[in-house]
Amino acid sequence: MKDTFKHKGMRNKLAQVLIEKGITDKTVLDAVRAVPRHMFMDSSFEGHAYQDKAFPIAANQTISQPYTVAFQTELLDLKPNQTVLEIGTGSGYQTAVLLKCKAKVYTIERQLELFKKTSLFFKKMGYRPKKFIFGDGYKGLPENAPYDGIIVTAGAPEVPRALLSQLKVGGRLVIPVGIEDQIMTVYTRSSEKEFEKTEYGPFRFVPLLEDKN
Ligand code: SAH
User: Fold this and answer.
1) Residue pLDDT, tens place only, 48-101
2) Please, what are the domains in the chain?
3) What's the angle, vertex CA 27, arms to CA 127 and CA 57, rounded to 5?
4) Cβ of residue 86 lying under 6 Å from some atom of ligand 1
5) Which atom of ligand 1 is nearest to the CA of 64?
């Protein structure tokens, strides 16, 4: 699959749609203009890649809607070279957007099929997260904590405590919380022991699953 001028033109239009929906962060919009979303998807969806919609990927999962990716990235409010832990790598599109925003990214996926597929894809495309881990993101990734930002791209029935504990003071956890629908929620660590919680609108994600063992 190639990236053509036609695809670039469609990405510019997509960025315009995101601006109309309220995205303002220039770094995020530039990342949407840069990352070839069609290459993260099955070729049968190529013609639809720049619609603001979620699509199926392998293992019954979905590539998030561009608006959702842009909104969550904007909520992380990253400065260049900050560290981000992403739970739910999926297609890797959100990962690539974070990398374009100059984040150092640690990302975790629990579906083996997707992990293998996306690992190969990252190599082929030259995307270099700091770590790409196969496992359960519910527990976070303590060995590289604390993080400036943590982003969860699956619907969490409740907020995993491990993730809160792996934030730097001043860092933010961006997480959709709920079972059927999710409320996008940001927890900012205001001190070692205190968190501020802000809620945004409703979204719909595939579920964040915990590996109980
Ligand atoms: N950011 C991805 C979203 C994929 S959907 C994209 O835009 O492509 C959410 C992903 O979270 C799925 O791939 C699912 O397998 C993964 N997931 C669910 N629970 C998880 C967990 N506990 N740890 C890591 N990944 C998880």
Assistant:
1) 999 999 999 999 999 999 999 999 999 999 999 999 999 999 999 999 999 999
2) 5-203 (3.40.50.150)
3) 45
4) no
5) 7
Judge whether residue 213 has pLDDT over 80.
no
153 lines ligand 1 (CB under 6 A): yes
What span, in angstroms and rounded, lies between the C-alpha atoms of 150 and 110?
17
- Pick the residue whose CA is nearest to atom 2 on ligand 1: 90
Sign of CA dihedral 50, 52, 72, 132: negative
Phi-psi region of 92 (alpha: psi -120 to 50; beta: other; left: phi over 0): left
pTM strictly above 0.85: yes
The share of the chain scoring above pLDDT 90, in percent, equals 97
Give the tokens for residue 172: 């933010």
Cβ(137) – ligand 1 distance below 6 Å: yes
The span from the CA of 206 to the CA of 213, in Å, is 22
105: part of which helix (H) or strand (E)? strand 104-109
Nearest CA to ligand 1 atom 3: 90
Hey, how many other C-beta atoms are within 10 angstroms of the C-beta on 9?
Answer: 11
